[in-house]
Design goal:
CATH topology of the largest domain: Rossmann fold
Oligomer: single chain
CATH superfamily of the largest domain: Alpha/Beta hydrolase fold, catalytic domain
Shape: globular
InterPro entries: AB_hydrolase_1, AB_hydrolase_fold, Peptidase_S33, Pro_iminopeptidase
Distance between the termini: 33 Å
Keywords: Aminopeptidase, Cytoplasm, Hydrolase, Protease
Number of domains: 2
Largest sheet: 8 strands, mixed
Pfam families: Abhydrolase_1 (PF00561)
Subcellular location: Cytoplasm
Helix content: 40-55%
Structural class: alpha/beta
CATH architecture of the largest domain: 3-Layer(aba) Sandwich
Organism: Shewanella yunxiaonensis
Order of helices and strands: EEEEHEHEHHHHHHHEHEH
């Protein structure tokens, strides 16, 4: 995409030794929208802006604790679900926004849904894709031997054999120790497994950066701690999600398989509508998935504009 100049760039001191990087793009008086990246720990990228009409939105790209350009990179201390949720609300207050839109994928979608259930009055609309269900089943699907491993056995064996362990818990602990030592083969194995699931049947890069290590560290940290009870929070708040919620899941999402999300939504008092994208993967590099998300984000913007025109919102 052509170079886009940011509206502003800031560093936000949230305490606990963390500095968060925030950059804003789009229309200064546009619909404020916080983009929630996945991972956890993946950070924001300029390519994320391709999802949004910058003539309508004021897009906030926030690198969560330890992720992207936030400092210190890969820091695990005071890096948990409640801290990330607190940062979201703190950011809204810092910016003086009464309400805003939220959008994001994977674990970013998980965070956004919990936040919207806790603070529904603050959310004008929200659009999420590739939603990660942070349950024991969601973790086992990714890292156990009976989930995605059954579909990609050779790749899983390569991931597992990067450390000396077998069962799910000891595998994650062994990876944690190796990642802390910055073992290149371990970083490569962790990232390769994740990318295999997100970009199936695609030629993957063989080089990995410091940012990849930071992401792997944070992902492993959250997985070892069972996502800090995010699933409990998600289920406790899901009946409070705003009406204007768009959920999209690729039918071939091997990171966050649709059946787990369907099972969770079935437990809502009034299940939120879910759009299954035929042939869609976890990654938005898959054109069908990206196009579906862009259309949903556009619909969300139209809905906010309609609410403003009818005087429902100021």
């Amino acid at each position: 995409m052509s170079r886009i100049e940011p509206l502003s760039r800031q560093w936000l001191d949230v305490g606990d030794g963390h500095l968060l990087h925030l950059v804003e793009y789009g229309k200064p008086q546009g619909i404020p929208l916080l983009f929630l990246h996945g991972g956890p720990g993946a950070g924001c990228h300029i390519s994320d802006l391709e999802l949004f009409d910058l003539q309508r939105f004021r897009v906030l790209l926030l690198d969560q604790r330890g992720a992207g350009k936030s400092q210190p990179s890969g820091r695990l201390v005071h890096n948990d679900v409640l801290s990330l949720l607190t940062d979201i609300e703190r950011l809204r207050q810092w910016l003086g926004l009464e309400r805003w839109c939220l959008a994001g994928g994977s674990f970013g979608a998980t965070l956004g849904l919990i936040y919207s259930g806790l603070c529904p009055q603050r959310v004008l609309g929200q659009c999420y894709w590739g939603i990660f269900v942070p349950s024991a089943a969601g973790r086992s699907w990714l890292y156990g031997s009976q989930g995605a491993a059954k579909r990609f056995p050779v790749d899983y064996r390569g991931w597992r054999d990067a450390v000396s362990a077998n069962d799910e818990d000891t595998l994650l602990q062994a990876f944690a120790q190796a990642l802390q030592r910055s073992e290149l083969k371990t970083v490569a194995a962790w990232c390769h497994w994740e990318r295999t699931l997100a970009h199936p049947w695609t030629l993957l890069p063989t080089e990995y950066s410091l940012a990849d290590r930071s992401c792997a560290l944070i992902e492993n940290h959250f997985a070892r701690h069972h996502y800090f009870d995010a699933y409990v929070l998600l289920k406790a708040t899901m009946d409070s999600w705003p009406t204007h919620t768009w959920l999209l899941q690729g039918e071939q999402d091997w990171v966050c398989p649709p059946f787990l999300l369907k099972q969770m939504l079935a437990e809502q008092t009034q299940p939120t509508a879910l759009q299954l994208v035929a042939g869609g993967h976890h990654s938005l590099m898959e054109p069908r998935m990206q196009q579906a998300v862009i259309a949903a984000v556009r619909e969300m913007a139209d809905n906010v504009a309609q609410l403003a025109n009818t005087g429902v919102i100021a």
